[in-house]
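Quick note —
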Amino acid sequence: MRFGFIGAGKVGVSLGKYLVNGGCEVVGYYSKSDASAKAAADFTKTKAFPELEELVTACDAVVFTVPDKEIVPVYEKVKAYITKPTCFIHCSGLETSDVFYDRFSYHSYGYSIHPLLAVHSKYESYRELSKAVFTMEGDIEHREALRELFLKMGNPVILIDKEQKAKYHAACVFGSNLMLGLLEEALMLLEECGFQRAEAMQALTPLAIGNLVHGLTDGTMESLTGPVERADEQTIALHETVLNKEQRNIYNALSKTLLTLAKKKHPNREYGNVEKEIEKEREEA
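Predicted structure written out below.
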């Protein structure tokens, strides 16, 4: 299968480089910016295509690595150059293969292939893709071949239902971006306590990383500690007094999830007072 990339940003360049290194045939890149296409082609040792038609006709799998809102408009342009059955692939965590809404009219097929990885660098993140789990959904034709391609490179591939893409993407945001939001809240609270930002980051690093690693290796319930787990409603009440309204809402929402875990971990422990404390503040907020 010959892959051609439309879009030469971080995801396109990283995935293209990863595929090339894995022995796949990547014909090259087309981008609105000729300079970006050339830089991507140079980095991946492929070709920069000055015209969209040239790239589309040179490959049999067109990979759309453009912002979500641009997938359909770009697809509309690509369709004018389809002369043979083609696989249309995008890498959105949210959108489904149905963005290629009339693909069957062109005897073609659609897929969404999404790496669970924060792609932070155009020229370095390809190194981290070997550790990523990929999710995939789309037409049954060629789906197994695409899945095998990533399996052979060592990546777990999970097939998901297109109806679950929005929930799946929300889960990814909980597990990545929103964690940064929680980290920022913790950093700001420590700064209010007199920490410099660098000191706060240094202090939280072993705490945050250790908790995350234990949670992912041992399980969230088994790793649970803190005032909710030990049914310490007095500490929770004291925390509530020093948080603003938005912080209390976050604190209580997450504490409610932790309470569910705590009850499973200690089915004979009494959590009634903790539950009342959390719910009381939720009503006042």
